[in-house]
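S., here's the first fold you wanted:
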Amino acid sequence: MSISSPNRIITATDFKNIMRVGDTSQDTILGRVLPGALRALERYCNRKFCEYEEEAFSVYCNDTGSVSAATVTVTESTLTLVNTGGDNAGTNTLTLADAANDTLTELVAVIEALDGWTATISSSATGTASSTELTPAAAQSCIGSANAVTLGYRVDITEYFDGDGKTRLWPQYIPLISVTSLYDDTDRTFTDSNDALDDDDYALFDDYLQLVDNNTFNVDTKNIRLIYRGGYTPAQLDDDERSDLRLAAAQYVNYIMQQISTGPVQAQVDIDGMVQRPLFFGPIPAMVRALLEPYKRKVFF
């Protein structure tokens, strides 16, 4: 199951810190508003902001005793489990590249073997995937099964394009990181090596792929298949250069929360009275649009 979402731009905790919200009375509605609001910003900017990821596994502390805190933290190289106050209190740091931990299946088995911890691999996860593809995540509380944390792992994105006789592709997930394969195949089997383009046949830019040497794509329908990595990494999202993006997200979510609090949600309905889409958030406010301007993807050929 995909857990890719723009929520990594700003979490509920980030929002509450920025807006100085100290209570938990609106946490439930905030959790429901956040994903849709941030996806609306992606649609406005005509792009996906974050790396694509799938569910890897869930983990939580099931220790007995007076557990006062339990967290899981993922970096590019380690996964750290901290148990405070339990019968098996302590810190376990697992190096993701170690032979005993270097696939998701192995990593889950190692966590399961630790006293006071439980891990369950996702039914959709590829168990042989490398543990080093786990998406880095700041410390998250995980005391008990009700608070299990689901970790994600980064995977390739597959997109299909209509060939248009031109020279550029505009993938959704940007900035572009790498290309695994690129085919231009009018038979749409994407298996013949003669239809595969080598990495010296194109150049990568932040938001598009450009054929070189005056080559063009064949004109056909869905004959282009691109498998790639793209989107901001967690480290890039945390960088100060993305502070305006985080602020835009916080302001827009706050705007929606205020609209909800002022009255019932309005909706557009069709002639049969069926709700088509909510209207409570209205247009994106001007200040938010101004903050998002550098992130809007402008397609040109």
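And the second, which I think is the more interesting of the pair:
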Amino acid sequence: MKNDLKETVNQPQQKFKPHLSANTFFHYSDQLKHITEALERKKLYPRYSLESFDFLENIPKGLEKLLIPMICFCDIKLRDSNEHLEFYGKFGLGFQRSWGYQNGIESINYIDKDSKRAEVIVDKINKTFNENLAEINPFNQLEFLDLMFLKPFYGKTQKRNRSLNSENTVSSNQGSETKTIIKYFADENESRYIPNLSNSEFQQLIGNSSIQQWYFHGVEKLNNATEILNDKLKQSEVGALNFEYSDLKYIIVQNIEDKEKLLDFIINNLNELNIREKLDLAQKIQIWNESQEDY
């Protein structure tokens, strides 16, 4: 009996299918051009994302906010995805789960700030952090690796006004494109691909000193600085995540007009594909505004 169990556990992960989550890693965007670019280059590019850790008591000074390079995915079933798409955008690529495992995509850990686990993580970080983030390789230090895959169960986040109702709104500046809201992050079923940038010109973790300097000039300065950094990372192709069209299960667009644009793109731009391959790719397109009623 013990040997049978061992054999079962050691089988390749792709042989097992989740029951409550989708058997797919979804990556969403709010713009069609991000999807066409990914399809043309057969790559997804990591971006520095601002993550807050000030919810952790006694987190060392300098680590309260970090810019971390990542590509985000979720495995929410399509029938339960409407709220998620309203928040992040109604364009997406759905990948085979086995492709995600092969490329090191991992589920993040949601944590309560008062939990014993939070206390242990912060204690380990306090013992090893020397205030110089540039010298830290999180892939060699488990406590910092944990930090890159850590998020509170809920907290404040920014979102563009266009897709929000007022239920969870905390604040909104007059004329601003964003609102501060309270979000239950654990509903997102987030997984992350985090590239190892240790042998490149890019810093793995960017901490408070740089962020505060950008904040001093306003949120726009921070956003602009982050965009410039992300563009530079993209142009270098360091940490880019490659895929083949066979790794794709779904291509999600918002409406019929977007589908027409995407079909034109597939026909006219993906010249490496023959007619049959273009048809196969086109059959993976799903129009969200129509198909959501059927899930």
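Why I say that: Residues 162-176 have pLDDT under 50 and may be disordered. The CA atoms of residues 94 and 151 lie 23 Å apart.

Talk tomorrow,
H.
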